[in-house]
Amino acid sequence: MEKETxxxxxxxEKETxxxxxKEIKRETKKKETKEEVKIEKKKRQIVAPGxxxxxxxxFLPGENTRREDxxxxxxxxxxLEKSEKLIKVIPLSGVYIPRVGNTVIGQVFDxxxxxxxxxxxxxxxxxxxxxxxxxxxxxxxLAEHYNFGDNIVTKIKSIKSKGIDLxxxxxxxxxxxxxxxxxxxxxxxxxxxxxxGSMVNTIKGETGxxxxxxxxxxxxxxxxxxxxxxxxxxxIELITKKPFIEGLTNKIKEFLIKxxxx
Amino acid sequence: xxxxxxxxxxxxxxxxxxxxxxxxKRADGSALFSFGNSKAIVAVYGPRKLYPQHLQNPQxxxxxxxxxxxxxxxAERKRPGPSRRSTEISYVTANALKxxxxxxxxxxxxxxxxxxxxxxxxxxRCAGINAASMxxxxxxxxxxxxxxxxxIGKIGxxxxxDLAKEEEDYTIKKDGKExxxxxxxPFAFLSRSEKISLMQLDGKISYDDLKKAIKLARKTSKKxxxxxxxxxxxVKEDKT
Amino acid sequence: xxxxxxxxxxIKELIKDxxxxxxRKLLEFRPISVELGISKKAEGSALVKVGDTEVMVGVKLDxxxxxxxxxENGALxxxxxxxxxxxxxxxxxxxxxxxxxxxxxxxxxxxxSEFINLKKLCIKKGELVxxxxxxxxxxxxxxxxxxxxxxxxxxxxQTAVFPSIKGDKVKYGELTAKKLPLKNPPIVITFxxxxxxxxxxxxxxxxxxxxxxxxxxxxxxxAGTHIHALxxxxxxxxxxxxxxKVLDSALKEGKKLSEKISx
Lengths: 262, 240, 263
Known about the structure:
Chain A is of the alpha+beta class. Helices cover 32% and strands 29% of the residues of chain A. Chains A and B meet through strand 1 and helix 4 of A and strand 3 and helix 4 of B.
């Protein structure tokens, strides 16, 4: 009984949230460009869970916040971000939380009769079944296809209580050959990619490396020389350390040009 | 006779507090919290996969706490490994922290909280809970609010905040005998709703005095929340 | 996640050219720093950082009956606690072989170099001696725990002072100004073999790319160079020529390090 009412309550809450976000989308679209410039220039404020971040009805509670009577509270440690109507907290830390549709980089750590166990650094186990691979696979020797320790670019197909199901049936999903793997905090992934890929494209352009960024914070870098890869790695590490400074893309570009001259 | 505190503190005054997050790089979250000479360091790992599988709860995340004293944190060396005391403290600590964490967000997984006391001078479980709450927040775990802990004592006739070891061992002479005259009452409160998530008592106290103790605990824990929040805000954005 | 095979391959390629991922030379330590007196309850304590690796060591002194075979010697005990605080790879529970090996390497380095003069720790022959308890707690494992533990242990011992005693009981909390009877500290350096070359002070990725390591504990004095403890570990065997080469560079690097410390 109790559970049911709880479920209903959650559903209701979700629905209202949906409505709210819709409303906000409409509201914010108009002023998006103007708004973004403004936010970039504001000094960033870090908030703690339970902290009151707004009072009254001026704002709607966004991600990682909750409303309690008149107040809106942070429910996660991170950076406060306000738009005209919405207030939310951008996480600064935390492990990777898988979402359906995420492209991630994983590492094969076990092989069963019908697929592969893949470590994607998520809180539950991930499995790639034979049926989610394309092309011919010798069923008697799955290791021929993906072996222990192999790194693959894969996609999260579904998340169930038993675990995560992966797929390889899409363009770009593949086994990684050559290059190196680095790992960063997954909360930094949007910064590494940048607006419409601007950041990662800058690094690719300046270093000549191929780079694949998994949503789980695992990144693959391959260049014509190890030195190029290390330079790209250095740039990525620099971004993870100072993710919220102004004009970061240009600064990274300058850094890469300077380093190349050395 | 009015009780004078050995370190000349006011009754409602805590010892010097040091609070910091991000002290252990490899962990998903970490913090240090000290009350005077009681110093706790905490590392949080997770939510992560839980093995063996039979321990998994398909509906929610397991929160495991491990509290222990470093062998050199006390006067006489403590043998490494859990004791009955540390096992109990680990358990009540987990209970103190659970109400603020959204455990249903990560079914089947585990969050591990390791609390190591590197210097012990009473109130170590409180220092541990304060550090653990900060470390959980630092690990980016969704939390309704923080958890704040302080120990209140009744020494002689006085109700005082944040007992030191010397006070915990306070005795009076009665009928020519040395009698224990200190009561130790550790509390933990949820920072926003102000609910009590840990309460233990060790000694002898009247109902009215206990009410006074709770009042003092609430007052002091408000100061601790501020310190915890400040420490979190000072974090460097260099977690990779 | 275990270091990727792709990254391991890159580490090996670089080392072939005498290069490392972080730009260091093959035989170069990361920056080292020491913080003393981190626990007031210990008779001596230190926190050593080697790069991102951090190890905390505390010294506790107590009185006990000597071992029957050494009635005039103080006792020495070294324990390493690999608490899962320091790495997701460690587990709760009684010390495993990794913790025991680490403690025993440090034990031998301290004991055999006679860094602590155990003979001077006797209070009453056959009845009462000082026991020196050294407890090692890594706080963050970013590679090379052995050398970092040795440095932290030595630093903690050097700061340790005797507590007061009353009769045959220690009065804890009442410290004297008297330090432990010490000689030259041992220098402990561990060499990791990667792709036919040896490096020191590895990161975790480099450790995982290596399948053989050799720890050397040594002292230097007017009489010359002394080797006090050796430990070859890992799956791969090594030939004599290789071993002698390692020892040769160990002594060279050790000498450099000991001169640096005495400055």
